[in-house]
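Example S7 (structure tokens).
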């Protein structure tokens, strides 16, 4: 870390304050809804059964449906048949792994047309990290698909160009082999026994020399055995291929090696014939190709260079590419001129996305963004006389990539805002519920006084009415307490106090807390758990888990409620089984009973949050919980896991973080 000197000016972030009206807008949930409803990209949200539960206007417009036509429809129905399996896999992945995914599919619009789109999907999660559904940002990529096809066609043509160039070199090699005699000592491959790149370099050299029908050979030189020859050629790195005065180090590019051999072996008149072949290739290239000589003059260009520069083709050849013209305007942007100058000094340059013109997000001229390559061309003496420039227009593709990146960033911001709204909702529920408890308790106390006769004798009818009110108050109080408990757990308004505890003792403490509720149902708890089994947990929270499971079993069991507690230990985990003889659970309900506010029996007491608390607390320990039942009146078994020690707990938490 450096200390600023006296003359340094240290800049600090200027404090700012948001205008109150703007602050209210930004924190208002309606603002986010307006954002979703007015954005250009479509948004579709589905539940865990892939049923559409929300669409914004943009999605309706793209697909040609009304909102009512899409809501309640399976999302797979609007996807072309060949993409449905992929949509199912990606959705299930978001549900199970709780991760965002991005992929391309094709929608089927209402009129039957095909709409290629990019899906940026994320799971809809509760504060306790439970998957409730998924939503996807839908970006129309029809224009990008057209551009990609054009690029594929251009790449195929460019590859054909390279293949033609290689074939040309091979044909020239055959001509040279018939007319030129070269001593074997002119081509040397310098290496050593420890050179790991020697074999690949030798393979490229052999491939190139095969074009010369075996008439041109090379000699392999070990610098440890012939140090004088290595010193004479000033060999600094290995492997090095020396062709006359020119040297190529490391594994050489096949085209560069062809060029070096050609420059060293071909007479000047043959070089001119080769240049004619190169000019023919330039004229018919699918990308902008031109050459610039050592003086900076454009010596050859094809029609696409006219689009790049905005000039007539006949005005480009002979123009000085390195300096502005008489009117002060340069033929090429300064960014390209710098690369030309580096190329004339012998440097090969490749740029994948080079911006050379100003443009807007809505409109851009051709060749605003280019894929660019500069290749130096040397004479047989090693002097660089020209550079070959290949310039491909990738403006549309690059802009599509930028737009997709911006859309995904907006989606992440939107997701953060939605999570914050969910958290604010939980805080509101907790605050509201807490304020209701005190008046309910006061009302209950008053009713108890009335029933006890402290305020006068009651008729049988009035006594029954007050008893009815007291029972209803009990139910409401239990529901609100359940909501408060769930809100605390959902907001993680607790910290785990972890330690090693005997599982059998935790179960015994739980059964003793059931009280009068258990007596009414003749509750009998049987604990078949070894005294040797210990778990690493927060004892208070796990007793809460066990108590909720016991109370749930008692509530849904007729008289003579029997609960059997068993446990198994394996691979650092203890699996706990809580089996009852109650009403049982339908198979269709097993997957939803741990969801928030779910009540299988809508007339039962409670808030429908007890099992949600169980799942949240068990997941806080890095473990899992599930339910099993063979059906109606066959009882239920709740199964949850706990780590046996601190090491197992750390592994579970680490695995959970990676999954998230």
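Recovered sequence:
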């Amino acid at each position: 870390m450096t200390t600023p000197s006296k003359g340094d000016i240290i800049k600090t972030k200027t404090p700012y304050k948001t205008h109150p009206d703007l602050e209210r807008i930004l924190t208002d949930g309606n603002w986010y809804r307006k954002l979703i409803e007015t954005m250009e990209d479509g948004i579709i949200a589905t539940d865990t059964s892939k049923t559409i539960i929300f669409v914004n206007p943009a999605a309706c417009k793209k697909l040609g449906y009304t909102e009512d036509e899409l809501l309640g429809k399976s999302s797979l129905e609007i996807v072309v048949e060949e993409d449905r399996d992929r949509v199912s896999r990606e959705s299930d992945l978001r549900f199970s792994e709780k991760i965002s995914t991005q992929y391309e599919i094709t929608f089927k619009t209402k009129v039957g047309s095909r709409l290629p789109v990019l899906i940026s999907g994320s799971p809809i999660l509760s504060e306790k990290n439970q998957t409730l559904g998924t939503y996807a940002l839908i970006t129309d990529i029809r224009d990008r698909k057209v551009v990609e096809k054009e690029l594929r066609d251009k790449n195929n043509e460019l590859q054909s160009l390279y293949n033609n160039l290689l074939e040309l070199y091979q044909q020239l090699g055959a001509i040279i082999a018939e007319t030129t005699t070269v001593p074997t000592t002119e081509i040397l491959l310098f290496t050593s026994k420890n050179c790991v790149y020697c074999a690949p370099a030798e393979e490229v050299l052999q491939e190139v020399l095969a074009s010369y029908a075996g008439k041109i050979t090379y000699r392999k030189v070990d610098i440890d055995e012939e140090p004088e020859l290595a010193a004479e050629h000033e060999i600094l790195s290995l492997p090095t291929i020396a062709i006359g005065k020119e040297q190529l180090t490391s594994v050489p590019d096949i085209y560069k090696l062809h060029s070096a051999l050609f420059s060293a072996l071909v007479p000047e008149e043959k070089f001119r014939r080769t240049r004619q072949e190169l000019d023919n290739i330039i004229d018919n290239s699918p990308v902008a190709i031109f050459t610039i000589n050592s003086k900076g003059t454009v010596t050859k260009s094809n029609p696409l260079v006219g689009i790049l520069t905005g000039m007539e083709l006949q005005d480009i050849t002979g123009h000085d590419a390195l300096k502005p013209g008489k009117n002060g305007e340069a033929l090429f942007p300064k960014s390209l001129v710098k690369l030309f100058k580096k190329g004339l000094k012998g440097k090969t340059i490749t740029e994948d996305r080079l911006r050379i013109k100003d443009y807007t997000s809505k409109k851009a001229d051709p060749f605003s963004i280019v894929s660019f390559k500069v290749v130096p061309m040397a004479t047989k003496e090693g002097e660089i006389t020209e550079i070959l420039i290949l310039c491909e227009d990738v403006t549309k593709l690059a802009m599509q990539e930028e737009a997709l990146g911006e859309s995904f960033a907006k989606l992440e911001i939107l997701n953060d805002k939605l999570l914050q709204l969910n958290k604010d909702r939980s805080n509101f529920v907790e605050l509201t519920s807490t304020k209701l408890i005190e008046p309910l308790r006061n009302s209950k106390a008053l009713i108890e006084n009335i029933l006890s006769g402290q305020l006068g004798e009651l008729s049988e009818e009035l006594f029954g009415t007050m008893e009815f009110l007291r029972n209803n108050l009990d139910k409401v109080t239990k529901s609100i307490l359940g909501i408060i408990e769930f809100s605390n757990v959902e907001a993680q308004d607790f910290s785990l106090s972890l330690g090693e505890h005997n599982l059998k003792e935790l179960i015994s403490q739980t059964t003793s807390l059931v009280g009068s509720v258990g007596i009414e149902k003749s509750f009998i708890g049987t604990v078949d758990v070894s005294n040797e089994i210990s778990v690493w947990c927060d004892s208070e929270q796990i007793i809460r888990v066990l108590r909720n499971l016991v109370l749930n079993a008692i509530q849904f069991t007729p008289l003579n409620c029997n609960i059997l507690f068993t446990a198994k230990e394996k691979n650092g985990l203890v699996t706990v089984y809580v089996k009852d003889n109650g009403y049982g659970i339908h198979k269709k309900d097993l997957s939803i009973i741990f969801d928030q506010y779910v009540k299988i029996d809508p007339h039962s007491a409670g808030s429908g949050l007890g099992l949600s608390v169980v799942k949240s607390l068990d997941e806080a320990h890095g473990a899992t919980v599930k339910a099993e039942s063979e059906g109606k009146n066959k009882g239920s078994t709740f199964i949850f896991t706990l780590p046996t020690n601190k090491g197992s707990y750390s592994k579970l938490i680490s695995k959970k973080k990676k999954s998230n």
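Notes on this example. Residues 399-486 form one domain.
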